[in-house]
Here is the input.
Amino acid sequence: MKKLKRRRMVGWYNPIQLGRTAKDVLVSTLLGKHNDKRVLQAIADSGELRPKYFYEVNKPADEEFWFDYIADMGDGFNSTYTMAYHITRHELTLKTPENKTEETQKGDILIFGGDEVYPVADWKVYEERLVNLYDLAYRKKTEGQAKDPANHPYPALFAIPGNHDWYDSLVAFMTLFGREKEFCGWECPQNRSYFAIKLPRGWWLFGTDVQLGSSLDQAQMDYFERVVKKHMKPADRIIFCNAEPHWITDTMYEKERGFAEANMGFFEGHILNHQVAVYIAGDRHYYKRHEEIENWDKKIPKDRTWKIQKIVAGGGGAFLHPTHRESDKIVGKRHKFERCSRYPSALTSFLLTFLNLPLLFWNLSLGFVTGALYLLTAQAFLADLGPFSLGRIVDVIPVVGTALVTKPIALFWSLLILIGFFLFTDVNSKIFRVIGGFLHATAHLLAVLVIAWWAADYVGNGRLIAQLTMSELLKMGFWTFLGGFIVGPTILGIYLLLSLNVFGWHHNEAFSGLKIKGYKNFVRFKIDAKGDLTIYPVGVDRVVTNWREGDKKKGEAGLEPTQMESSNKPFLIEGPVKFCKSEMNLLEPKEKEEESKHPQMITKIELDSNANLDA
Ligand SMILES: [Fe+2]
Here is the structure.
């Protein structure tokens, strides 16, 4: 077997990683904002070279149709491969919260819901963190089947890009998923970064490309408008995959409220004709489900068996995000949704936040940054604290104050620190941002003072700096650096813990540094012979960490778990959740669903780009 690189979880607080990510994010954000590549692509490609298709699933009318959704994969090996392994098993028996069991089948279609790789898109990173893993989990097992599409139709895979896929301007993503080729044994028929799939029994699956979290471009709007107006019926319903859950982000970042909601609101109302039944998105690395409770000021009758669902399921392998302290109990303004489920629980998420206290333990390299910054800060002041024994704070304050006003570098450095912490503070209110940033910066500056003072007292023994030898100065510097190495990340950890658990700030920063591999999820869907949709949210508490080589002859995956503990087994997070579309189907004249004659799972149907939509 080819030697596989088992990559660790991305170290978001690793200084080298931080620098690289910051550069890629900055360049892509600036270019993406002023030079939208989707628009350039649309201009260069009017549809003559690469026709625009929508896709139709070929499935006999009496057969159940299954498909799977997974998002935010491509991080550490164990978490990504565990989820790739579970999602590619032919059958999964899932325990429900009520201790019953549900039998589920592997999907005929697999949807990658965005952020296929971390930290930023790059061909090698895709290969090491995603492609090799799905290849190992799936293709090796079904090599024989995939060569015989007449008997075993290829399953199909469709992918939408998230912001992390866009950090190389979508080059690697389009090479992998947008060339109408194959991906690790799945047929991969899309030729754009967005798609519409006609599923059986009046269901559609739409996947959009929102680039770096911005709106939909005109070419996509036109594409979906043509599909809806020319090919959908009024009772058809859409499962809508968007890379970002705007219903959550709009609620969390109130200053931006309205932009995404207005853009998507227009799209959903005027183009999708309010036919969306299920929204699903990743980006937030947990599971949450919101259910419709009020539609344009009218309460939804309790006995209505279908209510619109909004699901966040970004649990394909990336670090966990917190599920508590998000003000999302009710989302939406006139069309309101109530949160019905979250995984992991709010209590688990609250308790996991305490892992920030030993932040240095998870991010050793961060200590080198804080150690160096503490040393530089002490050097900028270079206050003579040696003559003052520890505790004589009243005498020390004027010395430090004098250094601050008389040494330009001390003043400049202090201002730089304050601005840095102000920018780092993740809260919408400007006043809280100033207060939070000031308190956080002050805590670090006081820590520098105490550490440098202690080092001066310990090494200098009451002498002034000018009286110290070079080796004594180096010793003082070493102790200051070591103090900063330990204390800096600890103060940051305490700040993140309090910020999230008390004030609800820093949802991303308080969890990205913890690299929590567990509490992963994906979502399995079934459309039955009547047309009803059943949604199975699948959770995995702990990822597998010990693997053995699989036996190909027995049909095993490339790597199999050495041992499957009960906490490694997939289970049903809630439900299953049902959407009874058959009630809607009764409203429409019955049309016999055509029996499939195609050996392939997917048929490509060209969109008539010249058709007049108003005709
Ligand atoms: Fe993500």
Observations:
- Residues 356-511 form one domain.
